[in-house]
Structures
1.
Amino acid sequence: MAYGLAMAKGMLTTLKHLRRPPITVQFPEEERDIPPRARTNLVWFVERCTGCSTCAQACPDGCILVETDPREDGSYLVKRYEIDFRLCMYCGLCAEACPYEAIQVGGSYTNVVTDPTELYVDKDRLIGQANEYLEKHDWVYPNGQKAIRQTVHAPSERQHH
Ligand code: SF4
Ligand code: SF4
């Protein structure tokens, strides 16, 4: 008798789940919604960056390179900003250290590569990735603030205009 009851309960559970929509998604065609601040990746926003290098100093793996030129007004022009994702462990310490939230955790978790050298990402590519992020997220940064710009063109793109 107890066995029959257990069977019936099991069948009921099965029937209940049959009526529910599937919770799986057809990756990679479909992507699951993830919280904007999930530590999926790093996104660098050139328009917020002062070139102070605090992020590079905070990185335990030494995978951020910042090169600047002083401007006459005392600010810095960020000539190079590069991240070596071959070394990055996605700890987020750079993002925590940045006083201007110019580098933030979030962004794509699907940028898989077959050539590891592609994981060395320079300023132009970082700008492209940030643009892509903002275009997809209604011009809101991962930290929830409204973006202070529309698309910023990477220097190499600007030369064509
Ligand atoms: S996430 Fe961590 S390891 Fe990666 S660049 Fe930032 S501080 Fe360095
Ligand atoms: S990302 Fe932040 S910490 Fe790094 S150089 Fe730019 S402003 Fe400074």
Note: Strands lie at 42-44, 64-70, 76-84, 103-105, 120-121.
2.
Amino acid sequence: MTSPYNPAALRAREYAWMADDPAMFFNAASVGPMPASAVRVADQWSALRAQPHRLPFDAMLEAASTARAQFAALVGADPEEIALMPNTTYGLNLAARALPMRPGTMLTFDGEFPSCVYPFQALASRGITLELIPRRHGLPDEDALVAAIHREDVVAVVVSWVQFATGYVADLARIGAACRAHNVFFIVDGIQGCGVRPIDLHALPIDIFASGAQKWQLSPWGTGFVYVRRALVQAIDPIDVGWACMKTSTDYTRLTDYDFDLFDDARRFEVVTLAYQDFAVANASTRLLLDVGVEVVAHHIEALGNRIVAWAQSRSDVRLVTPGDPARRAGVIAFTADNIQAMAARLHAAQVVHTVREGAIRLSPHCYNTTEEIERLLAILDR
Ligand SMILES: Cc1ncc(COP(=O)(O)O)c(C=O)c1O
């Protein structure tokens, strides 16, 4: 499959530096490069921030409400179900501590990023233990997970949508259906898929979905969101409480009324003064993704990934870590080789920006990468 989308115009407009830079950037799974339109907003807000009296209060509130609305649009949610967060992990901690889980067992896959592990291991004092479902051929064993959900002791499941090291895409509909059938909470770490793979949260049995925006969403560090399923928004209590959770926070004449009156929507989980500036920047990045279209980006990175997968499968000394099946991968493509260190060193010397995770080379192309770059990359790997 080739991609009908041509990134040339987007590169010229948003990533002009790529034309002159000898580096090829394949590392959105670590940190996404901010587009020029977002950098412009950052500059504008920095200038305003230097003279805060020129920055209207309404502009700050508007940046936050646009961020909620655009993040919601990215994942098929309503803005009222979105709370702005500084990263993924805070949203997962909200899930760990706010969901009314009885003592029992939580399940996740061995090999997940620690954000799916530590917040839940921390629940031991509540009688909740986290069980890791062992890997099968190095990948998450979804059959074993779904089978385990039937057990009486299981109270919740947490998985990442796309795994950070293997790039494995979990079948959220299948896992969620098993959770729903057994009254088990379902929590998802969405950061490695959000922005580059379509998702309709209203069509999925997911209770809480958290994502930082600093990777595939091409946004500043310190921006992200948590989605809380509508029926839960008012049914769970915030874990941390501050002035920003309260209705009075938008009316500075009423701050000392001390009305303990939480917002009715997911803003009740936003505790403190927001990073308005960073969310204004994130809004420009999210706009770009929505304008290009998440579906279009998804097809593009699939086509680029297909080339890398075909190359890996053609080499007897290379073993693909990421599933070959396009339905089971997103932007992360990982592979090992007999001499992985030499290969990584060759990439490094040729200024191919990548990472090594769990002993595998990880490449993560995005909407700005071209087929020609992939061919150059493969030629470097074949040298
Ligand atoms: C699956 C996954 N979750 C979470 C994170 C980072 O968490 P946070 O956004 O809280 O820093 C990463 C970063 O590599 C990740 O790959």
Note: Residues 87-89, 113, 115, 160, 164, 189, 191-192, 212, 224 surround pyridoxal-5'-phosphate (CB under 6 Å).
3.
Amino acid sequence: MANFAVAKTNDVKPGQMKSFAVNGKRVLIANWEGTFFATQDLCTHDNGTLADGELVDGEIECPRHGGRFDLKTGAVTALPPMFPIKTFPVKTEGDHIVVALE
Ligand code: FES
């Protein structure tokens, strides 16, 4: 695992999620009620980006077919996806959002 400063805390406002390129991967940073979460930015259903979807009740809703994933665990909470998304440890250091990636 290595830590990467992905964005600044004010880049992702509460209720927002954005995609960032980190070490050759797309990482989704979500701000749910002031807490940051990090996941892969790739839906396991049909490889769509999740960044243009919605944050609903602590879940990511995919913009393509409405599949949902739990922000904390990456577990599928609404079909059609069959497989979870990866989640990554995230913390803030000063005004930076820092994500640990493999
Ligand atoms: S690509 Fe995400 S639900 Fe289909």
Note: Residues 43, 45-46, 48, 62, 64-65, 67, 80-81 surround FE2/S2 (inorganic) cluster (CB under 6 Å).
4.
Amino acid sequence: MGEKKIINRYDVIIIGGGVIGVSVARELSHYNLNIALLEKEEELCFGVSKSNSGIIHPGTQNPPYSLKGKLCVQGNLLTRKIAKELDNDIKTLLNIKKDAEAFGVPALKIVSSAWLRENEPNLNAEIVAALYAPTAGIISPYRLVYDMSENAMQNGVEIYTETLVKSINFFSPFSFKIYTSGGEYTTKYIINAAGLFADDISGMAGIFDFKIHPRKGEEFLLDKKKSNLTNHLIFPLPAKKSKGIIVIKTSDGNTMIGPTAEDVEDKNDLSTSDAGLYKNLCHP
Ligand SMILES: Cc1cc2nc3c(=O)[nH]c(=O)nc-3n(C[C@H](O)[C@H](O)[C@H](O)COP(=O)(O)OP(=O)(O)OC[C@H]3O[C@@H](n4cnc5c(N)ncnc54)[C@H](O)[C@@H]3O)c2cc1C
């Protein structure tokens, strides 16, 4: 990524090179602004964005009338639009009905056990019906981040990896100084896209009104030999604190089962466990 070339003043500095940071970078790169993105790891997409299930959620798993549900439906449409603009072959993975204009989840239908037997023969034969949400899709999460970051860089965004933000000073509303492991940066605006660490960054700017309580998810990835196990994304009814354990056919063709949802103390806890494997295998 970019060499450590520190220009004196940016209009916008984005902290965090996950899916949120790079999509903001790409969007802002359409405007005449000096923009930099600072990422503490050696590569973009090394945070939560690298290790998710890759599902473009259709919006069926959220509490009714919630902000999350509303954004989920908008995000589903936007992700398709971005994928199209970037012209990557996600198109083939997004082989589901076109719903470009609509808000709300389109084309849901209840399918019968006969439909399931025909279309998902490896599911339990006792299932009598299921909700079919054709706008659910699958994406390669890292590919999306890399494609968006390349596009943002072509449009002039400077990206500095291995640049840990350590503290922030503000002198007036439009004059911030950011101290990092790679030098000092000044900017008019800061965008906090630091994911799990967004509360720490916020605290550096003197704002303490939210705290992130980390929750870990383990996924069980099967060999491609098992790629014919299912043909669709299979969701259970949502669990109390998560979307439940999902059977996913990843964009690479492997079947993946998960994730678990476990509250943890340590934001850097990436461990896997026998208990997680058991949960994924016994409660899909
Ligand atoms: C197991 C699991 C499965 C999931 N599955 C799905 C799914 O199928 N579909 C879906 O839509 N969502 C899914 N999610 C949620 C989704 O992955 C996240 O909401 C999303 O990746 C968050 O992106 P982000 O850019 O906010 O955070 P991140 O990807 O974590 O990016 C934040 C970045 O900020 C950097 N950073 C932090 N502090 C600093 C600092 N001080 N200085 C510089 N850089 C810093 C980090 O290194 C990181 O790269 C899943 C999550 C989990 C845990």
Note: Residues 215-284 form one domain.
